[in-house]
Amino acid sequence: GNCDLQPAITNLMISYIHLSIGILDVSFSILVIADFDASHGKNSITAMKACTKYLQQINTLVTSLLVVHNDLPTNDWTKLFHLLAENKSYQDVTNVYSLYE
Question: What does the pLDDT look like over 68-86, one tens digit per residue?
């Protein structure tokens, strides 16, 4: 299913993620990454950790990193909150709102 496919795609795309981060201007007071359609968060957190790790690895993250996880009110937020509590690699907030509205 999608839960197995998404991490595989993230791994295939990691060089493109690194390339994009390499040209990113991170001199802002805070860097915000949006995770639209977060679902239970397992796949999202994997991708966010990869971004965070690479930013730290190339020493360009001189500001705070904030990840906004967005999904519908009907989402299973309990699973996402549990995973976020286990993850300490970035600051996070959630936004319970349809990205289509």
Answer: 888 888 888 888 788 778 8
Superfamily of domain 2-96: Vaccinia Virus protein VP39 (3.40.50.150)
Q: Which two tokens stand for residue 89?
A: 């690699």
Neighbours of 69 (CB within 10 A): 26
3-state secondary structure 30-94: EEEEEEECCCCCHHHHHHHHHHHHHHHHCCCCCCEEEEEEEECCCCCHHHHHHHHHHCCCCEEEE
Dihedral Cα 21, 25, 29, 35, nearest 10 deg: -40
Structure tokens at 2: 């999608």
DSSP 96: E
- pTM of the predicted model over 0.70: no
